[in-house]
Amino acid sequence: MAALHGSSVAVVTGAGGGLGAVTAKTLGAGLGLAVACVDIDEASATRTAEELRGAGIEAAAFPVDITSETAAASLVESVHTELGSVSHLVNIAGVLRRTHLADTDAASWRMVMDVNVTAPFLLTQAFADDLRTAEYGRVVNCASFAGIRGYEYPAYAASKAALINLTSSLLFDFWGSAVTVNAVAPGAMDTPMLDRAAAERMAAKTPTGRILAPEDVAAVIGFLSGPASRGVNGTTTVIDGGASLLFSYR
Ligand SMILES: NC(=O)c1ccc[n+]([C@@H]2O[C@H](COP(=O)([O-])OP(=O)(O)OC[C@H]3O[C@@H](n4cnc5c(N)ncnc54)[C@H](O)[C@@H]3O)[C@@H](O)[C@H]2O)c1
Question: If you take atom 39 of ligand 1, which residue's CA is the nearest one?
Fold first, then answer.
């Protein structure tokens, strides 16, 4: 497939999921980027890529487990071949295991860390040269308010806290370039990850009276991915309707 956009390619992980699919469309339609739709779930990655192509956006599906040893290197190669050099990396893939101190074993802890923070680190490392040579490179990481406030599921909360710290720590590696690295920290969002049984309670505990739609978060990711955000770097934007300022959803 020929690259239409040259070096304006966004790699979006978790592109088959609730937030990833909406973000892929936001970046493709709003910023004119070609989109590499990465997800462990082949059917959903393919569906997102097809929807984008149906809307006239250059896109391809990459069914990849981002925790695999070879994921980063092989993604660089295959995205270059199918779409071109990468200007945007948006790390959205994430897993939440609803386990506590007593029932989180080491394998589950490591798996959550691998998906939520080690993979974003390795993917940023793998695409760093592309990002530096882009007109304006952007990395946007999807953390969670749980990474700021703490949460009852410690592996998830710790992984998101690490991702927030990684976001600001990577500035040193991109010093002197046009690359910015930022994160978003959503509160409860209406996607397959949401605990639906708790949705009404969480909406009632949110000052805006509603939980988030993925579009609410994708809009902020779109801004952080665009040229106008060039002065914003190393930050984490909380998007939760004000919920975490006042209390916990619990
Ligand atoms: N839904 C919420 O309430 C909420 C709140 C705060 C933060 N978040 C974060 O938002 C992001 C998007 O989640 P979502 O709500 O859209 O949930 P989702 O479950 O719909 O999407 C997550 C996607 O990540 C993919 N994924 C998981 N493991 C992977 C792997 N090893 N390799 C490649 N892809 C993998 C899944 O297949 C899925 O498509 C996540 O990082 C999540 O932690 C969600």
Answer: 17
The number of distinct structural domains making up the chain is: 1
87-117 pLDDT, tens per residue? 999 999 999 999 999 999 999 999 999 999 9
Q: How far is the CA of 176 from the centre of ligand 1 (A)?
A: 32
Residue 188 in contact with ligand 1 by CB distance below 6 A? yes
- The CATH number of the domain holding residue 231 is 3.40.50.720
Task: Write the DSSP string, 144-155.
Answer: -THHHH--SSHH
| 79 CA distance to ligand 1 middle (Å) | 21
- What's the start-to-end Cα distance of the chain, in Å? 49
Ligand 1 pocket, 241 CB below 6 A? no
Interatomic CA distance for residues 180 and 124, integer angstroms: 12
Residue 246 has a pLDDT of 80
Task: Domain of residue 188: give its range.
Answer: 9-246
pLDDT at 245: 85
